[in-house]
Amino acid sequence: GAGPHFGRPAPPPQTGWERLRELWQRDERQRYPEETLNIFKSAFTGALVGWMYGGLPAFHQARKAFIERSHGELFQNRADAVQSAHRAGLRSFIRYGWRWSWRVATFVTIFNVVSTGLSAYRNKTTISNFASAGAFTGALFRMHLGLQGLAGGFVFGTAFGIPAGALLMAMQKFAGETLQEKRNRERRELYEQKLSEWQSRLSVTEDLGQTENNAQGGTEMDRARES
């Protein structure tokens, strides 16, 4: 009696919590969902952009300041002076680039985690998901400044989240479907494929069982005739 239900594939996630858990689980090929990979990619991109944003101006400013301060200093040759100026700029590039890098990467990561989580939980992608994610992230970054900083971060995050979300949704729509729509379609297609394969295996198993029963029945009849 338990045979027909044995091994039946599990249906796609039906609740918001199930879809949230699925974001951090690997599939049969040991791959994370595309939304999760995009979070890691955006974190790396944010870190790189932040490093350039903070490091390049600091490099040029430190190099210029070194040249202005070193007019009275003696160098072995012009190459030595240029190398010293570059080293001063490089130190500032690393120092200030790192400061901006981890901040931008953290902001982008939290924003994407919250917006992706909301989209998965609600099973739809809307501007309100990105606005809420921006407001939460901005408030989180400015909460150490007190109530005024919390309010300012909330407003800034919302103002950032709305156009960022609109841009992302426009890019996804241009591709034909949003990530959430694509994810739902892939879930449905995979479940239908697994269900079809399971039904095929079940049919073969039942046919084999029927054949075996018929063979056993024939053997018992032969024994009865012989006796």
From TrEMBL:
- The answer to whether UniProt assigns keyword Transmembrane helix to this entry is yes
- Record keyword Membrane present: yes
Name the residues that span the membrane: 150-170
Top-level taxon in the UniProt lineage: Eukaryota
Arranged from A to Z, the UniProt key words for this protein are:
Membrane, Transmembrane, Transmembrane helix
Q: Which InterPro entries match?
A: TIMMDC1
Q: Which GO terms describe its biological process?
A: mitochondrial respiratory chain complex I assembly
Signal peptide: which range, if any? none
The subcellular localization recorded is: Membrane
Its record classes its membrane topology as: Multi-pass membrane protein
One of its Pfam families is Tim17
Q: Where is the composition biased (Polar residues)?
A: 202-217
How is this protein annotated for GO cellular component? membrane; mitochondrion
Q: Where is this region: Disordered?
A: 202-227
Instruction: Indicate where this protein is primarily found.
Output: membrane
Summarizing the function annotation, the protein's role is:
Chaperone protein involved in the assembly of the mitochondrial NADH:ubiquinone oxidoreductase complex (complex I). Participates in constructing the membrane arm of complex I.
Similarity field: Belongs to the Tim17/Tim22/Tim23 family.
Q: Which PANTHER family match?
A: C3ORF1 PROTEIN-RELATED, COMPLEX I ASSEMBLY FACTOR TIMMDC1, MITOCHONDRIAL
Protein name per Swiss-Prot or TrEMBL: Complex I assembly factor TIMMDC1, mitochondrial
Q: Which organism is it from?
A: Halcyon senegalensis
